[in-house]
Amino acid sequence: MAVWTIEQLAAFLRFAREDPLFVLRWRVALRGLRRGEVAWLRWVDVDLERRELTVAHQLVHTDDGLVLCEPKSAASRRTLALDPETVRLLRRQERVQRRLPPVRLHDLRQGAATLALASGTELKVVQGTLGHASIVLTADTYVSVLPRLYHDSAKATARLVLKAVRATNRKIGKARAGA
To answer: Which range of residues forms the domain containing residue 175?
Structure first.
């Protein structure tokens, strides 16, 4: 086991300051959280007013993948005090996260279907891409219509009609010229 000196830790934290995982690394370095504990730490487990965080769950890698479970032992379920700098960093991280739209992983799947349709991909292809047995499920559940699609549809419909009108006008014009 290797343990960093305070100077080495300070150099690492200075180097990692702009890393998106900086606050996570800071909490591990200063509060000794396990990898699985810090990976599943949620805002509901953090009380910034009381300057505490509670280790209530951990993420564990198993043969079946990642599994959410109770802490390693009864002693692992604990509440840790936070220093003012950690609270400041967590408040900043919370502000940054609130500026991002709250997108769940499944929302990305729905977005992929919507974007595929917006790009002109046929609904049947989107159905196959998502692995749905029914095209109705794809259309009703996973595909939300982008406002741009309404405008594109209106333009395409108008182009189709105007093209027919021009063709009709040409025929009428030719008929009049020949009469």
So the answer is: 148-179
Q: Is residue 168 classed as helix, strand or coil in its secondary structure?
A: helix
Q: Can you name the residues that pair with 54 across neighbouring β-strands?
A: 79
Q: What is the pTM of this model?
A: 0.58
**Are 178 and 117 in a shared domain?**
no
The answer on 152 and 119 residing in a single domain is: no
**How many contiguous H segments (helices) and E segments (strands) does the chain have?**
8, 5
105-118 and 147-178 helices cross at what angle (nearest 10)?
Answer: 10
Query: Between helices 105-118 and 123-130, what is the axis angle to 10°?
Result: 150
- What confidence tens digit (pLDDT) does each residue in 56-86 have? 999 999 998 999 999 988 999 999 999 999 9
In a domain, 34, yes or no: yes
